[in-house]
Amino acid sequence: MDRFSWSNGLLEIDETLVVQQRGVRLYDGDDKVKMELGVALLSTHRLIWRDIKNHECCLSIPLSQIIFFEEQAAGIGKSAKIVIHLHPSSPSKEPGPFQNSKYSYIKLSFKEHGQIEFYRRLTEEMTQKRWETTPVSQPLSSGTGTQAGKTRAVGIVGIERKIEEKRKETDKNISEAFEDLSKLMVKAKEMVELSRSIATKIKDKQGDITEDETIRFKSYLLSMGIANPVTRETHGSGTRYHMQLAKQLGDMLQAPLEERGGMMALTEVYCLVNRARGMELLSPEDLLNACKMLESMRLPLRLRVFDSGVMVVQLQSHSEEEMIASALDNVLEKGSLTAEEFAKLLGLSVLLSKERLLLAEKVGHLCRDDSVEGLRFYPNRF
C-alpha cells in the first residue's frame, strides 16, 4: 500500500478510462485495509481506487509500477480477488496514505463480482502499455488539505525527463544482465580448460595417475560432455571441418544408438550432441552435412531418410529385416497397434515407431485402418 499516492480521481490529458467496478475492497498484502468499499477505476495510465462515501479519499498507482498480476478464485465466504505484485516504492513518489508496507503486493477484492472483465481489461492494458506511447502532459492535482502532494513536471520538459530516466534505468538493467552473463562465460571457459587438461593427462599419462584414477577421470569427463569438441576455430571450415565432425559423431553416438535399438531421429541426435558440446553449440546445417559423410567415410553409422522425409541416424549393423520382423511380431501378439502403443512397447519415440510400422506395411506384412480414432495397424490377412 505504500506504492499508492493521493489523487483527485480526475483523468489527465491523453489518459482514457478503460473500465470501472463498484464494490471493491483493498488489501495490503494479506491484510484488509481499514477503508470502506470503493470503486476501482482502470485507465490507460493508472489504477485508481475511490471511496464510495468519502469522495476526497482517492488513491492511484501507475500501471508501470506493476510487475505481474494473478487471479485468486472465490471460496466459501470469500470473494474473488486480483493479486497485483508491485515494484519497490520510488523515493520520489508523491505522498500517500501509507509510508511503508511489509508487503510487495496488493489485492483487489470484488464483493459485487466483475473481476473477470476487470482482469481481462487489465491484461490488455499491461500488454499494450499505452502509457509509454501517450505520456501524460498535464499535472495531477493531489488531494485536498493534508493530502496535498508535489506537482509533477509537465509539458515537453517533463516528458523528456521521464524518457531520460527510463533510458538510464534500462541501460542499468542491461549492464547488470551482461555482467552476470560474462561471469557465467568465464566459469564455463574454466570448466572447458579443466576438462582439456585432464584429458591430456590421461592421454599422455603424465604424473602419477594410476589405472583406477584414469577410469575415474574418464567417467568425470563423460558426465561433463565432449572434452575437445570439433570447432571451426580448431579444424577450419568446409569439407575438412565436416569430416572431423563426422568422426567425432561416430565415436560419440555409437553407445547411445545401441541403447536405443540402433536408430535415433536426427532431432534427438541434435539435442544429444549439443548437450554434450556445452558452450560450443552446433548448427543444424553443420550436423546434417556431417551426418551425410558418415557412410562415405566408412564409419559405423549412416544417415537414412524415410519415404515420409523423416531423417534418422542408424548403425551400419542395424538390420532392416529385424526391424520389420519386430514390428510384425508385436502386431501379431497384440492383434493391432497404433504408433503410440508400439512406442511404449519398444521404448522408442512415436515418430520412429510409426516409421517402423509403415516400413512393415510397405513390404506387405501389415495393413492399416485410418479412422477418426487414428491410424491403427493390423496383420495383413489378404
Automatic annotation (TrEMBL):
Keyword terms of this UniProt record: Coiled coil, Cytoplasm, Endosome, Protein transport, Transport
Superkingdom of the source species: Eukaryota
Protein localization: Cytoplasm; Endosome
Main subcellular location of this protein, as a coarse class: cytoplasm
GO molecular function: phosphatidylinositol-3-phosphate binding; ubiquitin binding
SUPFAM superfamilies linked: PH domain-like, Winged helix' DNA-binding domain
Domain GLUE N-terminal: 1-138
Organism: Nothobranchius furzeri (Turquoise killifish)
Family, as annotated: Belongs to the VPS36 family.
GO biological process, one term: protein transport to vacuole involved in ubiquitin-dependent protein catabolic process via the multivesicular body sorting pathway
Name of the protein this chain belongs to: Vacuolar protein-sorting-associated protein 36
Pfam families: EAP30, Vps36_ESCRT-II
GO cellular component: ESCRT II complex; late endosome membrane
InterPro entries: GLUE_dom, PH-like_dom_sf, Snf8/Vps36, Vps36, WH-like_DNA-bd_sf, WH_DNA-bd_sf
Quaternary context: Component of the endosomal sorting complex required for transport II (ESCRT-II).
Primary role: Component of the ESCRT-II complex (endosomal sorting complex required for transport II), which is required for multivesicular body (MVB) formation and sorting of endosomal cargo proteins into MVBs.
